[in-house]
Amino acid sequence: MAYRAEYIWIDGTEPTAEVRSKTKIIDGPVVKTPAKLSIWGFDGSSTNQATGDNSDVVLKPVFVCPDPIRGGDNILVLCETLLTEDLSPHPTNTRAAAVAALKKHKKHEPWFGLEQEYTLMKGGWPYGFPTQGFPGPQGPYYCGVGAVKIVGRELVERHTTACMEAGLKIAGTNAEVMPGQWEFQIGPADTVEVGDHLWMARYLLYRIAEEYGVEVSIEAKPMKGDWNGAGMHTNFSTKKMRSNYDAIETAAKSLGGKAKIKEHLAGYGQGIEDRLTGDHETQRFDKYSYGVSDRGASVRIPWQVHQDQKGYIEDRRPNANADPYVVATLITNTVCEAL
Ligand code: ADP
Ligand code: MN
Ligand code: MN
Ligand code: MN
């Protein structure tokens, strides 16, 4: 029986890349590894990845999992984009640098846990906000229960199940501080795998939300004013950090070098100044600090990590709309070079 492979890639939309996909019917044995799948292509002039006169961009499968939406033998195929000329990475292919960073620092055994926050939207307004007004102030919604506080749980549950059935490393979910805002976590996984699984989980979220007529926004500050923004807190450890507190301190300090702050913020997602205001559990974008249990710091050392004198750190700065490959590449390089 023929089956379907959904080829998924990351486009060239600016300032924030988006997911695209198209379907390939495969008439043959069921394939479960990327190396056994054929390369494919698409019209890059329609995705801000090429000009019309030289429009073809190559899709190279890099990660395959079962398709939990279609079921059966159907698969999801995450791809890297390559140039036709020499099959080198396309300029918008940020995964290639993550592969290089992991290769370079493999002996450190980097692990990431990403907390993807997002906002459900309907008609350009957060899902669950009254049509022309605002709900009561923040407070009851975070991890809340009950119809007055919560919207979208059925969608969220379906997404979680889909991620589990696809074999993604989903670690948990929770309702967030602003109504209509939710979070899921991916990890622990290495510098490359965490990006593969996060992009795949984003694809599944957008795809499932279609069925509800709901739009998923990963905008960093969808509502101005006294409403929390949406981040992608990035939890990180290396082998040394998982056994030694000095390495935790070294890691937290390494992210605070002046040049490093600038370099990292440039890769942490569009509109970061709007989100990192110093309020709503953030440190200001132009300040760097780290501290135990401190949700107003740039980098938090979890209480339990201080207690155990080993573990991981949380970089709270990345936006929800950041590219996980870029964030993981920056942190792997900066911290591993300092350790
Ligand atoms: P928060 O308390 O900030 O909301 P979460 O529970 O949402 O934290 O997310 C913590 C994330 O950290 C999870 O995805 C988890 O897999 C990840 N994590 C746990 N231990 C490590 C570690 N040693 N290295 C990297 N990530 C880790
Ligand atoms: Mn969290
Ligand atoms: Mn959160
Ligand atoms: Mn967090």
Write a structural description.
The chain is α+β, with helices and mostly antiparallel strands. The protein folds into two domains: about 90 residues, Glutamine synthetase, N-terminal domain (Ubiquitin-like (UB roll), Roll); about 240 residues, Glutamine synthetase/guanido kinase, catalytic domain (Creatine Kinase, Chain A, domain 2, 2-Layer Sandwich). It is about 25% helix and about 25% strand. The chain has eight helices and 14 strands. The strands form two sheets. Strands 6, 7, 8, 9, 10, 11, 12, 13 and 14 form a nine-stranded mixed sheet that branches. A five-stranded mixed sheet has the order 2-1-5-4-3. The mean pLDDT is about 95. The site of one manganese (II) ion has 3 residues, from loops. Adenosine-5'-diphosphate binds next to strand 6, strand 8, strand 9 and strand 11.
Domain count: the total is 2
CATH top level of the largest domain is: Alpha Beta
How far is the first residue's CA from the last residue's CA?
Answer: 52 Å
Q: Please tell me the CATH architecture of the largest domain by its name.
A: 2-Layer Sandwich
If helices are DSSP runs of H or I spanning 4 or more residues, what is the number of helices?
Answer: 8
Shape: globular
The third-level CATH topology of the largest domain is Creatine Kinase, Chain A, domain 2
Mean pLDDT: 97
Beta-strand percentage range:
25-35%
Structural class from helices and strands?
alpha+beta
Could you state the CATH homologous superfamily of the largest domain?
Glutamine synthetase/guanido kinase, catalytic domain
Radius of gyration: 20 Å
Bound molecules: adenosine-5'-diphosphate, manganese (II) ion
**What's the count of strands?**
14
| Helix share bin | 25-40%
Q: Give the uncertain stretches in residue-range form.
A: none
The topology string of helices and strands comes to EEEEEHEEHEEHEEHHHEEHEH
Summarize the biggest pleated sheet: 9 strands, mixed
